[in-house]
Amino acid sequence: xxxxxxxxxxxxxxxxxxxxxxxxxxxxxxxxxxxxxxxxxxxxxxxxxxxxxxxxxxxxxxxxxxxxxxxxxxxxxxxxxxxxxxxxxxxxxxxxxxxxxxxxxxxxxx
Length: 110
Fold this sequence. Notes:
Blueprint lengths: L25 H26 L4 H36 L4 H13 L2
Helix pairs in contact: 1-2, 2-3
């Protein structure tokens, strides 16, 4: 069984006075970080395309791919957040977390 290590995530971190942590296993963290690293590479490639005056349509296609990749990271993180952080808080009786996750989902849908 994977060791569960508490690592702060954007969705679970809270504010400076709230020390909530995510409960993602190392495999999930590695997958998220790898995806973000690939996206960083895509963004650097897009920047280079702009600097080289590549045709706009090609750049827009690359931007679309980067957006899709970032959306994939968000979906994976939301899934893990729901199955760990949200579930745990509901089990502890914190139903306010439902409003929090709905607010987050609505932001993602913009």
